[in-house]
Amino acid sequence: xxxxxxxxxxxxxxxxGLGREFAxxxxxxxxxxxxxxxxxxxxxxxxxxxxxxxxxxxCISCDLEKPSERARLRTVIESTGVDLLINxxxxxxxxxxxxxxxxxQLGQIELNIKALVELTYYAVPAFRRNGFGTIVxxxxxxxxxxxxxxxxxxxxxxxVRDFTEALAYELKGSGVRACAVCxxxxxxxxxxxxxxxxxxxxGMMKSPEAVSEALEGIARGEARIVLGASNxxxxxxxxxxxxxxxxxxxxxxxxx
Length: 256
Ligand SMILES: NC(=O)c1ccc[n+]([C@@H]2O[C@H](COP(=O)([O-])OP(=O)(O)OC[C@H]3O[C@@H](n4cnc5c(N)ncnc54)[C@H](OP(=O)(O)O)[C@@H]3O)[C@@H](O)[C@H]2O)c1
Description:
Layout: E1 8-12, H1 17-27, E2 32-37, H2 40-51, E3 57-61, H3 67-70, H4 73-79, E4 84-87, H5 102-130, E5 133-138, H6 151-170, E6 176-182, E7 186-187, H7 190-194, E8 205-206, H8 207-219, E9 224-226, H9 229-240, H10 243-254
Parallel strand pairs: 1-2, 1-4, 2-3, 4-5, 5-6, 6-9, 7-8
Helix pairs in contact: 1-8, 4-5, 5-6
């Protein structure tokens, strides 16, 4: 019962993929959930499924790329008893830098970085006041090397991992924890949105196994969790091999 001590979790990007799975697995351990994403119908469907488990599920339809919309989450985080924040919403676009429309390049920064930092900014003092709480930020194995044709996405995830690990250090001894989760290719809507799936299909993890491994690591208090044996090996290899070789391999995988 890793999460039974958390009372209320706010999960962004809960309408699909990993976020949906986080919501289901956390709710199955008795923690109430606040589900955030743009597609309200998907959130409602999920909340009905979760309520059948006997826990509370609230839906907030919100476009986290819009500062005015995500500011609405401030009161929810500060004053409704949220003690677990999962910053999971994110997207990437595969393609040469200038061939991706600028609004999508900036959208990745707005969602993957700015929204995540903003919600974390609200959560830290609120959790500190209670001397308890956990912030989980979803990074990626893409955070370990610069990735040509996925440049903005990979750099955004490097930001997420570095930011979260530094925050975890700052929070030591406060009762509040921060954790960067690094999934590798996983079966979700991610590659459909990214615009290229084929080269990543072999060896993809499934969301349920990825999320249960993440939850085990979070419960152990780890500040960085790389999911899956092959992704752990890749993370180590990325530190051993020269950047140029890493980028050559990455460029082959992401070649449009
Ligand atoms: N799947 C992988 O291979 C993989 C690997 C490494 C890291 N990750 C990371 O894992 C996280 C979850 O991705 P996933 O694989 O589960 O992808 P997914 O299936 O595409 O789900 C993405 C979620 O983010 C939400 N979202 C997207 N734009 C949003 C916005 N503007 N405002 C609010 N919510 C928004 C989507 O909901 P709506 O469309 O309803 O808004 C959806 O619920 C992401 O941070 C991703 O970068 C994924």
